[in-house]
Queue: 2 jobs
Job 1
Amino acid sequence: MFPTKTRFRKFEIAPLARLLAKNGPGRVARGLIGFLLGLAVVFSIGELFLQIFPPNDIQIFLGNQASGSGIYKPDRALGADYRSWAEFEKDNSLRLAEYLPLEKLKQGNPVWAFFGNSFIQMQGMLGDTARATVTDKRIFYLGKNETINLRFAQIRLLLENGLQPERIFIELMPLDSVPLGQHPLGDYRVNDRGVITYRSPLPGGLHSTLLGESRLLLAGWMRFAKPIPNANTYGRQLNDRIPVELQEQYAQLFQELAEVTSRRNIPITLLLIPTHEQIVKGAGCAYQDAMTQLGQQFGFDICDFRNSFQDEPDKASLFIPDKHFSPRGNEILLRELLAHLRGRS
């Protein structure tokens, strides 16, 4: 059965048409204009607030408009580098002072220089364990956790200013890749005041228009589009698969490291340390496999600790509550490293 003519007309009339019929087009137009003006006021207030008080997650995309000052400069290979030795020395004054002047280190025991994340630098971790145990070497580490590209910048700067270690040890874990996944080397934009910022995550079409200058739009994009990978999710994915673009970034970093160290005849050992998830839960080790293959291409020595930890019967004893290694875990790290080096000699 078809609807009656009267019922058909009821379905046919749209809400806007009913509104026009009731109030007339002039009143509807005024209401629409009022709504748009109100929306513009709200937008303007939000934009003004973010111009004055930009949150950290958009501050890093503001280039020369970002607040503060820094100690960095752009670098073709590493994304960022230290602007000068003096600024680097000041930034690392607490730990670096004991090694200065660097030329003086040549007169004592051979230097082993360690670079890495908190598994090297934090109190009680491998740096401290090596210093307390390996008494015939001078153990060098800065005690600060920097992103992997800045660690490589530190190595280059230290070598250029007189450090001559017998060997350099570089810790690598999946979590070291998270900053590269979130902000690739090609996205680095060090501003005129030495602050590290990054290319805007807005799509090209938006960023090329006036809307690209809107901090409200940028904040909304960050909240809802979520263009920056989640750190935990990205790190876990590396247990199973290494994205091609990440491998390319590591190749770029390793190329620079190889050039800096090979002309000084300084050997590199990559310390491939497994995570809590890999040791306790049996997660995959695709990251370690990829770093082994890539590191060998550049002539680096590889020390892979996965078997030493996965074969331990009491895995809980290897960790402290925050999932860093316990004293026992660090003792195993150092023991296996020394055995690895003896096997090379």
Job 2
Amino acid sequence: MKALKMPEELRPKLAEGPKKIFAGENPIKTVEEALNKTTCDYVIAVGDVICYTLIKAGKTPNICVIDGKTQRKEVNVEIDPSKFNKTYQVKNPAGHITLEAIKTLNKALKEAVEENLKVLIVIDGEEDLLALPLIKEAPNKTCVFLGMPNVGVGVVEVNQQERKNAEETLSKFTEVELGS
């Protein structure tokens, strides 16, 4: 299976998260504040807790990318698949972005934008890095919500500059062949 491997030197930069971070004691109020202070035609959530919190706040994301974990531990939130029109499952090991995952993300973006579908993507592995190809391909006025454990909610409002930043970051990854 072909994949892009994250170089270790990018880890600290990526761990910082996006520039726009909303913090607060109450996760639902924090998400509501983030939604009120951003202009989003489409909402994408990368992470189980942020997906769950957006749904609880009354805003089911157009796309949710989850892996059943938070900080590499099993997560205790249940995301109801019936909130979504389609569900995909794809493998994506930690520290990588598989080409299969990229294809699935692009298909989900097309379905969300062109067909107004709600799409749930369940990752076998880790979903953290998948925000990058989503930001690179999403249309303007898409907000990508990222759970930032012990910090709050990170939001990337997609525009030409954010797409360029994601593309530059992805260009530093190396293509590898993973054993199946």
